[in-house]
Each structure stands twice: as structure tokens, then as C-alpha cells.
């Protein structure tokens, strides 16, 4: 049980009569410090693990996180996330000559050009090819170019209809 | 498309050779780099020239598609091809970024101590990204530690806490150039070192560490 040793040391000190100082329990102290170190390291790896999950969110949801997730993050984690997505954006912009390449798209190998999608939430106007646009209203179905829909599918706005 | 592209490669003496590739050869090089990167446990040499040329290629294709007649069957096929190439390129760059993020303290340490003329495993942009990632993560861990832990505990040592790539992991490969006398180290103390020859076209399952330099030189292809 964690902290038992620490408690014991404290109790030892309390048990000693006023003015007296019990022998310095070097062994006990070392055990407590080791325990603290183990807890600290465990905590560190938990904290780091959370960070890796937050990083995964950028790739899953895009640069705007859903509110529900944001509430679960600490201020420091939010700051880390903001720096990370800025850093990632800078890197992606630097690829190639102009504009760069958004490598958070094209996550799966292309199977077909167009896919059937159903709109799960009201989204509004969505530009497709050469200026034409579609109105994405809840429950409307469309036959759209796959590469245009990818991020909206991941954000939960569109649903890929597999017939 | 009959245009050819210039790719400046470096041979083992450090000299520059100008290699002219057809678009098809360029894409083949991209796919080889992509597969090697996917299956190697560590971050491989940066192939910036290939990335740049492929980006140019994609721009040309996009331009051609914009000018083409609508409804032409060729348009669909070219668009598929463009998507496929973009997928491979994105996947390749993503794979590299993931490794950079996974092993960042070791990769940055290696960059610091790299010798003159040694090929870098990071492109200049990747180096910037890696340094920012390190600074960001260090700051975060320090802030969290200061907030919650008493100051007598040790500071973060990322080089020790972040694991190194496992170079002993096994990989599949196909031999492109015949190799002789490859020294294979034993896994256990009972076994001894032995040498093997690798015939062109043969396939092997072998520990990555043994053949790492052959991947870099292009003598073998990871599959």
C-alpha cells in the first residue's frame, strides 16, 4: 500500500516524547523516496500518455476539437495542443513550392472517385468542383468526390453510405 | 507526360550525381522510399528531392486535369492516379512525422553529433518541426511537474524516458543487388556468428540491424 512507509515515519516522530529526536531512519526515508520516485514516474508516463492521445486527436478531428473533448483537457494540455497544431501547419505549408500539402487528408488509399454520403447535421453550402456547390442539410444524400468529403466524414458531419 | 525530371542524388563518396528520371521512375522511387520507411523501425534518410519532384509532378497533373475536357474518361483515370500518388506521398510523410514524434530526443541527439558529410535523416523543415515538438513537450512536462510535484524530485530526462527504436525487430526484404558475406549476429549466447550470401531477387526475414546499411544504399527493398 502506497504511503504506508511515509505514514509510519511520521507516526514515529509523533510518538517520541516532547523535545526528543528519534534516530534518523535512513532506511525508511530511502524507501519513501523510492516510492515517491516510482509514483512520480508512473504519473509522468500517464501524463505523457495523455499527451499522445491529444496528439492523435489533431489527426482524427482536425484542428478544431469538439467542445466535449476540450472540457476534458487541462490548460497546459490545451497550450501543448495549440503549439502542436501550429507546428504541424508550418511543416505542411513548407512542403513543395506553393501552399504545401495537407497530409492529414488522404488517410486511406483511394478506392473509388466518388462516394455516396448522407448528411448527419446541417452544414450549409459546400463547394464541390468548378464552383458548383451543394447544400448539406440534415438527412440529404449526395454523390460527391471522395477527397472532398474525407474530413467532413471524420468530423461526423457526413456519413459514408455503403450500399 | 513525356517530360523528365532531374533528381540530384548523392553517391557513397559524397559526390553529386545528376539523375534524370521519367515520371514513372520517380513514382517508383517514391513507392520504394514509402515502403522502406513503413517497415523500418527507425527513421531513414530524408528523401527531400523525391518529395519535391513528386509535389511538382502532382501540380502538373492537377493543372492538366483543370484544362481537360469535362466528362472525358481519361480525366477520371488521371484523377485516380493523382489521388493514389498523393496518398502515397502523404502516407510517407506521415510515417516520418510519427517516427520523429516517437523518437524525438534520440533523433535530435543524433543530428547534433552528426559528422560532416553524413546524410541527415531530417529535412530542414522536419528539423524545425522536431525542435518545436521537443520544446513544446519539455515545456508542458515542466509546467505540469511544477504545478503538481514537490521540487525535490528529479527533472525530466527525455533521452532516458523516451524509448529508442528497436533495431532488433525483424523485417521482410527483397534483394535488389546481390550481397556476399553478410555477417549475422546470434540472438542467444549459444549460437555463433555466421555469414550468408543474398542472391538478387531472393526474399528474407532478418533482423533490421543486420541489413540497415543495405536499406540506405538501396541494395535491398523492405516489403
From TrEMBL, chain B:
Pfam families linked to this entry: Sld5, SLD5_C
Domain DNA replication complex GINS protein SLD5 C-terminal: 165-223
Record key words, sorted: Chromosome, Coiled coil, DNA replication, Nucleus
Coiled-coil features, chain-numbered ranges: 44-71
Cell division listed as a keyword: no
Top-level taxonomic group: Eukaryota
Protein name: DNA replication complex GINS protein SLD5
Native source species: Suricata suricatta (Meerkat)
Gene: GINS4
Amino acid at each position: 500500500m502506497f504511503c504506508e512507509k511515509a505514514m509510519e515515519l511520521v507516526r514515529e516522530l509523533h510518538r517520541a516524547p516532547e523535545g526528543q529526536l528519534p534516530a534518523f531512519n535512513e532506511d525508511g526515508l530511502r524507501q519513501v523516496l523510492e516510492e515517491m520516485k516510482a509514483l512520480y514516474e508512473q504519473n509522468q508516463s500517464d501524463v505523457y500518455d495523455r499527451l499522445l492521445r491529444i496528439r492523435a486527436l489533431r489527426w482524427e478531428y482536425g484542428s478544431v476539437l469538439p467542445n466535449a473533448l476540450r472540457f476534458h483537457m487541462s490548460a497546459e494540455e490545451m497550450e501543448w495542443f495549440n503549439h502542436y497544431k501550429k507546428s504541424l501547419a508550418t511543416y505542411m505549408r513548407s512542403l513543395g513550392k506553393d501552399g504545401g500539402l495537407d497530409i492529414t487528408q488522404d488517410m486511406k488509399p483511394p478506392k473509388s472517385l466518388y462516394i455516396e454520403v448522407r448528411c448527419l447535421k446541417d452544414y450549409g453550402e459546400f463547394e464541390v468542383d468548378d464552383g458548383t456547390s451543394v447544400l448539406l442539410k440534415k438527412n440529404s444524400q449526395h454523390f460527391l468526390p471522395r477527397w472532398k468529403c474525407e474530413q467532413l466524414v471524420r468530423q461526423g458531419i457526413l456519413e459514408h453510405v455503403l450500399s | 507526360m513525356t517530360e523528365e525530371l532531374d533528381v540530384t542524388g548523392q553517391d557513397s563518396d559524397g559526390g553529386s550525381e545528376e539523375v534524370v528520371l521519367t515520371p514513372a521512375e520517380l513514382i517508383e522511387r517514391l513507392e520504394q522510399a514509402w515502403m522502406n520507411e513503413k517497415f523500418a523501425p527507425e527513421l531513414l534518410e530524408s528523401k527531400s528531392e523525391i518529395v519535391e519532384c513528386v509535389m511538382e509532378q502532382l501540380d502538373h497533373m492537377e493543372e492538366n486535369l483543370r484544362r481537360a475536357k469535362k466528362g472525358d474518361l481519361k480525366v477520371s483515370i488521371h484523377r485516380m492516379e493523382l489521388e493514389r500518388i498523393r496518398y502515397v506521398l502523404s502516407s510517407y510523410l506521415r510515417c516520418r512525422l510519427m517516427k520523429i514524434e516517437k523518437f524525438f530526443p534520440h533523433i535530435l541527439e543524433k543530428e547534433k553529433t552528426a559528422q560532416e558529410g553524413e546524410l541527415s535523416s531530417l529535412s530542414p523543415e522536419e528539423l524545425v518541426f522536431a525542435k518545436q515538438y521537443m520544446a513544446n513537450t519539455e515545456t508542458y512536462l515542466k509546467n505540469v511537474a511544477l504545478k503538481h510535484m514537490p521540487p525535490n524530485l528529479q527533472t525530466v530526462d527525455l533521452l532516458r524516458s523516451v524509448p529508442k527504436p528497436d533495431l532488433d525487430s525483424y523485417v521482410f526484404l527483397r534483394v535488389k543487388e546481390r550481397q556476399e558475406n553478410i555477417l549475422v549476429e546470434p540472438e542467444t549466447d549459444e549460437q555463433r556468428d555466421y555469414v550468408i550470401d543474398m542472391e538478387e531477387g531472393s526474399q528474407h526475414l532478418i533482423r533490421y540491424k543486420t541489413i540497415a546499411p543495405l536499406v540506405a544504399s538501396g541494395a535491398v527493398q523492405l516489403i
